[in-house]
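Dear colleague,

Following up on yesterday's call, I've attached the two folding results inline so they're easy to grep. Please treat them as preliminary; we haven't cross-checked anything against experimental data yet. The first protein's sequence and structure tokens come first.
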Amino acid sequence: MIMDMNEQHSNTQTEVEIKTLSESLIDELVGAVALPKNAFTHRLFWRLFRGITDRLAALGVPFDRLVRDQGLPTGCRWALTHFCHPTLVRGQELVPAQGPLLIVLNHPGTYDAFTLLSALPRLDIKWISSYIPFFDKLPHTRKHILFAERNDPAGRMLVMRQAIKHLNSGGCLVYIPAGHREPDPHSYPGAAQSIENWLDIFDAFFKYVPGLRLQPAILSGMVSRRWAKHPLTWLRSKQIDRQRLAEFGQVISQLLKPGKFKATPRLSIGKALAEDELRQFAPFDSLTVAAKKISQSLLEGHCNEFGCWASPVNTEA
């Protein structure tokens, strides 16, 4: 009798968690199609898309428990199995197992953070992200995230202090210096040019974290070429907004028809470099310039290996 009551309580708690997570996704859908986020659009999209957001939310609950029990990389690997084929990785063996490490990643969106995190041989990971209500409501995952908003200077300074503290404790920090979505090298032009616009922040990390190493990483294959060209994306004029719509359309189709289409992420990880090694790439300039150069070089090798937009090697959807 007591066991039945405990099971019933657990099921009820899970249902509440799923509903909360599902509702947190609605405004993201509203924003993707450039509608105002208000009570009317929230109710409308809740009625139209709740079945879809419930499916994603139902994955969020066990994912968060896996993060609690086995760590963030294991949770990410499990989550990716629902959307992706195994990641094609080169350079995974180059990731240091310990010591302060700043991993610099491009931002093609969709499953990008999960793809990188799933490949890391460490548990002491935090990553800097814009505010995402869905992740904020996952208590064990939330411990690994430092939320920062571009329009909140005070909040960004606090996050910077927290990031430096984590690095000084010997931890691993994943940082996306673009601060916004970038072209997926697999499906869109402009990935190398986007790196030129990365935030100028790397000197500050090295100034306050002795022994820090920087490691570049490049991802592609988050958005399929089919969805990149989908008529749904014509609702928006800017490429960055079209890519966001393509992401939402792709993930929604995957939730509606599980297993019918899976993306094939490609990940390249470069060598981890200390400050003196990094300065060799830009001896008379800032560390940000050096970080851009090594990331663009890694992108070039990535495209040679896996194929990129308009590349003859790039024949997949």
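Below is the second protein, in the same order (sequence, then structure):
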Amino acid sequence: MSVIAPAKAISRPPLPDRRWTRSRLTGHLLMALWAILGAALAAFLLLNYDQAFYDRYTPKFFNGLIVTLQIVFLSIVLGALISLPVTLGRLSRNPLAGVPAYCFVYFFRGTPLIAQTFLVYYGAGQFRAELETVNLWWFFRDAFNCVIFTFSLNTAAYQAEILRGAIQNVAKGQREAGESLGLPKWLIFWKIILPQALIVALRPYGNEIVLMIKGSAIASIVTVYDLMGETRRAFSRTFDFQTYIWAAIIYLVMVEILRRLWDVLEARLTRHLERDRDAANDEPNEPGKPAGAEREPGEPPAGPVGVLR
């Protein structure tokens, strides 16, 4: 009859030092300050509560929020489509493709978004006759269309640089492995390079969407009644400062929801990388070799490989 040897007890690591260091004390003081400011803001809103104000302007704020979401969604999607050929141009060695792509990115990343919006919205009126000739005046006469057009080009420049950096981050061995299998270049890019590049670019893409949410407030300057446009109109009629407070809260909530959704999406798309790290951490060590020690040069890793090498 075989006897099962008892498992060895694993000693717990020592508890971290919880002394009141200068950095810890500073962090607690800052958190207390934020809590006090939040309580003061809530008290201000409660003391200035006006049911008539909320009954009149809540639907308008909701309509402005819908317009803001439309601007952000359309701009990001159209910008992503425009960024693909721009990215290929930035990666190309052909100056006929590389120079225009570089100039496009250089201009839209180097000039303010509000200046670009004014150039399109007010500048289109200077070419009304020409635009009517090519049947495009119906598009540029609408402020909403001008905003979508400008914001799409602006975010396309940023998305192109994000995607270009992510593609260049993929190891050259990936492309060489695809070529060794006889795959065409377009299939290598679409099935091997691009999926890995999008994982690398996922977090910068989230930051770009956050910037677009906050930058969409510029649309209110050219008579688009988005969230900030409705806020400005409500303040001009009531001179009630809480209109801007509620606008800031709504923008903050939108950014926080996006941040949490992006964390879930990133965890979902990179779950295979988490398994690889767990497998590497669970790799058994040789006798006498301390836990967590690095492998010897040339020693293959244990467990499944989640990414192509």
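For the second protein, one point worth flagging: The radius of gyration is 27 Å.

Best wishes,
A.L.
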